[in-house]
């Protein structure tokens, strides 16, 4: 029954039903931005919200090509966002632009600035995930940060479900070792495993 309702929702979205799009957006928008923030971005000009917006626009244009239900839509959308992010990186890398980082901009302007970016930058989970190799970081971000399942993560990243499971296992193992080696007393829960 749930799958049939999901199929109907996607069919309504294909037909341009704004309520169906709003429901899909409500299901995935916040998770998509959180996931994009956890990807390795070599380009400081990459903005998760902009990439997510472009992914939604691409999804709206290509929804007629999508085959699947509401559950499959998440993996498809995240895959689009991954491709948009890669494309933006290639373009910015080719242009060799280097915008000022937040602390450089603050120093150049002489102001104290908003402390919010510093708080976000100090987030333990983001810092830990950022230490992982790219594939493991993407998988851990998909599964443990935004709550995608293995199938949706596989579709989003364009890798097999087995590769997702292996990368997830390796990523969590690395995180456990990192936390243990750092001697931190922080109780971190990732993937249902507490106190890595």
Automatic annotation (TrEMBL):
- Source superkingdom: Bacteria
User: Has keyword DNA-binding?
Assistant: yes
Q: Which InterPro entries match?
A: RNA_pol_sigma-70-like, RNA_pol_sigma-70_dom, RNA_pol_sigma70_r2, RNA_pol_sigma70_r4_t2, RNA_pol_sigma_r2, RNA_pol_sigma_r3/r4-like, WH-like_DNA-bd_sf
Q: Does the keyword Repeat apply?
A: no
**SUPFAM superfamilies linked to this entry:** Sigma2 domain of RNA polymerase sigma factors (SSF88946), Sigma3 and sigma4 domains of RNA polymerase sigma factors (SSF88659)
Can you give the residue ranges of the RNA polymerase sigma factor 70 region 4 type domain?
A: 125-175
Keywords in alphabetical order: DNA-binding, Sigma factor, Transcription, Transcription regulation
Domain RNA polymerase sigma-70 region, which positions?
24-90
Q: Which family does it belong to?
A: Belongs to the sigma-70 factor family. ECF subfamily.
Q: Which PANTHER family match?
A: RNA POLYMERASE ECF-TYPE SIGMA FACTO (PTHR43133), RNA POLYMERASE SIGMA FACTOR HI_1459-RELATED (PTHR43133:SF8)
Protein name in the entry: RNA polymerase sigma factor
Q: To which species is this protein native?
A: Nocardioides conyzicola
**What lineage is this protein's organism placed in?**
Bacteria, Bacillati, Actinomycetota, Actinomycetes, Propionibacteriales
């Amino acid at each position: 029954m749930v799958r049939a309702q999901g199929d109907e929702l996607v069919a309504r979205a294909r037909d341009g039903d704004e309520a169906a799009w709003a429901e899909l957006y409500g299901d995935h928008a916040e998770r998509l931005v959180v996931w994009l923030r956890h990807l390795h971005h070599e380009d400081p000009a990459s903005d998760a919200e902009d990439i997510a917006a472009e992914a939604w626009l691409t999804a709206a244009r290509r929804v007629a090509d999508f085959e699947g239900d509401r559950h499959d839509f998440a993996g498809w959308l995240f895959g689009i966002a991954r491709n948009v992010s890669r494309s933006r990186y290639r373009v910015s890398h080719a242009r060799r632009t280097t915008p000022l980082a937040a602390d450089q901009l603050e120093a150049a302007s002489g102001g104290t600035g908003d402390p919010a970016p510093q708080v976000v930058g100090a987030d333990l989970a983001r810092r830990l995930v950022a230490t992982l190799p790219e594939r493991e970081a993407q998988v851990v971000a998909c599964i443990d940060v935004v709550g995608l399942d293995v199938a949706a993560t596989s579709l989003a990243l364009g890798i097999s479900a087995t590769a997702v499971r292996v990368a997830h296992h390796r990523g969590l193992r690395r995180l456990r070792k990192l936390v243990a080696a750092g001697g931190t007393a922080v109780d971190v829960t990732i993937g249902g495993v507490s106190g890595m």
